[in-house]
Amino acid sequence: MRVRQLTTAAVALLLAAGLGGCSDDPGPARAPAPAPATADPTVGTGDVRPVDRAGVRDGGTLRWALDGVPATLNVYQGAASADSALLAHALYPSLFRPDEHGRLVPDPDYLEDAETTPPGQQPQVVTYRLNPQAVWSDGTPLSAADLDAQRAALSGRDPAYRGARPAGYDAVESITQGADPHEVRVVFRRPYAEWRSLFGPLYPAAETATPAAFAGALTDEGRPSAGPYVLSRYDAERGKVTVERNPLWWGDPAKADRIDFLAVAPERRLDALDQDRLDVATLTAAVDRAQPVPGASAPAPPPPAAPPEAVPEAAPEAAATELRRAESLPGVTVHRAAAASLTQLTLNATRGPLTDPLVRRALTRAVDRRRIADAALTPLGLPAAPLGSHLLAGDQEGYRDNSGAAGPADAGRLLDEAGWMRPADGGTRAKGSTPLALSLLVPAGSATAKRTADALTAGLAESGIAVQQVAAPAESFVGDRLTAGDYDLALFSWPAGPSPASEQRPAYAKPRPDADGTPEAGSNFGRGGTEEIDRLFDRAAAELDPVARLDLLQETDVRIWQLGHSVPLYQRPELVGVRAGVVGAGAYGFGWPRFQDVGWSG
After folding, report:
1. Which of 268, 318, 441, 589 has the fewest CB atoms in 10 Å of its CB?
2. What is the pTM of this model?
3. In degrees rounded to 5, what are phi and psi of residue 266?
4. Are 400 and 388 in contact (CB under 8 A)?
5. 262 forms bridges with which residues in the sheet?
């Protein structure tokens, strides 16, 4: 599952690599929260060299890049990062794992079966059948006690537990052992359709049973884990984490003897690959945030009429050069996929012309999503696949383009109706003496953001909407801009996952008044919402019939389009460099590594 708790640090990570996602985003697990009529079959399904375990040799060491040695391995703590999640996938169980289309399926290493009571039967009871061979690295079997301790820590009922509060744990009434020690019975206080997202990752009961234990970093060697690998070295000072084969592992044996996770800054990764110091490295940020080489010819500066602070500090030409270099590295393959993250244009419903729903709907129709996707993704070698849903990525089951719900395709007609008339010379529309001019907040330093913003600006100008780009660094993008509402339009990414009803709800929840009566937007940076949308999200989260649940999600998305809240644009790009001979590694899309299969070809 992914934890959706949007903080300043979280969005700083989202902005670090081209409108979202950190450079080692491992897919659904712990992740920060902000990032066609039919789906493109090549989008988001991942790009990983197929694994035939018979052809993977036993032994050897893999060197895998991290952004930095994380402060904690407990992905539910506020200090956790995507690197925390990547390591957790090697060390800790997840009862379900996503397939390439984001559907959660049981991981047979941990879970033999799970079933819920039929729709309409109350209370909802889920019965899990744990793999009898599954044990923690100290020999203790996985049991109901582990699930129950994690429920208590994450339910929000005890404020002494500090950290993220993933959706769903508060819906659990009780967890008990079933017919034998390997059966677990989970009773819900209210129906929860997205129950498969719970207990992934799962920690030993001793690590979550008390607030003090929950606050631990889990970085000491010898702590119990239950993955194909165990932690053998955690050296933040030297930027290195080493995992070695778990001697008590019951599943397919890990192919590599060990994996060295090395802290390597994005701008140094191509050099590290070229010098044979890394085997697997996400390159999204290395390419996206590349800067011109000192002394090299540079493009002409922007015209004087454009203030420096209004232009994103990005270098698309340098990014293209860096991508060509990555593709030419001897013995290295660049894998590409659409990540589980939705890049969107958010409209601030409390600012100027955008307070008019008609103007917001007109703007959503004026945005040329295919043109933008082409500008953002084609230079990276990915299909230009625009998105038409706020809640589902293009490769997820049930995806549907609902953009037509925003109204007639003729944005000009809607703007005329709203009183914003176009002058005879075809320039910027105006109402009286007030021009239809909007600011566009973009993450500074991102070539993908620059290409996206330029295509968006040009497209809106054709509809008579003037846009002024304003670049903001990651450290101020959220607190000084998004949270404060200091923008008209904003570009950023929001994670996509298998539980949209509960995980996407905060982005669209109607702002509620705080103690002094001021509406509190929370994670809804568009600041628009309705009671109906909130009710539809809640109904979808509680609907156990999958067909009815999907219908509710589609209806929710239609209402969001009609509100003119935001415009989904495309899935965030993901680029990963992998050394020749390494199998089981690449760009995972919705998935994450099956670490026991990653190794060297025979």
Report:
1. 268
2. 0.90
3. -50, -40
4. yes
5. 65, 240
Spatial contact of 597 and 51, defined as CB atoms under 8 Å apart? yes
Bridge-based pairing of strands 332-347 and 430-431 is unpaired
- Chain centroid to Cα 91, Å, comes to 21
Give the type of residue at 356: D
Q: Please give the radius of gyration of the chain, using alpha carbons only, rounded to the nearest integer.
A: 24
Percent residues over pLDDT 70 in the chain: 89
Is there a contact between 15 and 23 (Cβ–Cβ < 8 Å)? Answer: no
User: In the predicted model, is pLDDT for residue 555 greater than 60?
Assistant: yes
Q: Quick one: DSSP state of residue 581?
A: T
List the structure tokens of 49: 């060299």
State mean pLDDT over 92-98: 96
CA distance 74 to 84: 7
Position 440 confidence tier, pLDDT thresholds 50, 70, 90: very high
User: Is 271:329 a contact under the CB 8 Å cutoff?
Assistant: no
pLDDT tens column, 57-84: 999 999 999 999 999 999 999 999 999 9
| Half-sphere exposure in the Cβ direction for 155 (13 Å, CA) | 17
Q: Are 449 and 314 within 8 A, CB to CB?
A: yes
- 294: pLDDT confidence band, cut at 50, 70 and 90? low
Determine the Cα angle at 281 with ends 98 and 595, to 5°. Answer: 40
Using the Cα atoms of residue 372, residue 375, residue 380 and residue 384 in order, give the sign of their dihedral: positive
Instruction: Encode pLDDT of 340-356 as tens digits.
Output: 999 999 999 999 999 99
Per-residue tokens: 374: 């082409």
Contact in structure between 489 and 441 (CB atoms under 8 Å): yes
Residue 251 phi/psi, 5-degree rounding, is -90, -160
Q: Which pair of structure tokens corresponds to residue 341? A: 């993250």
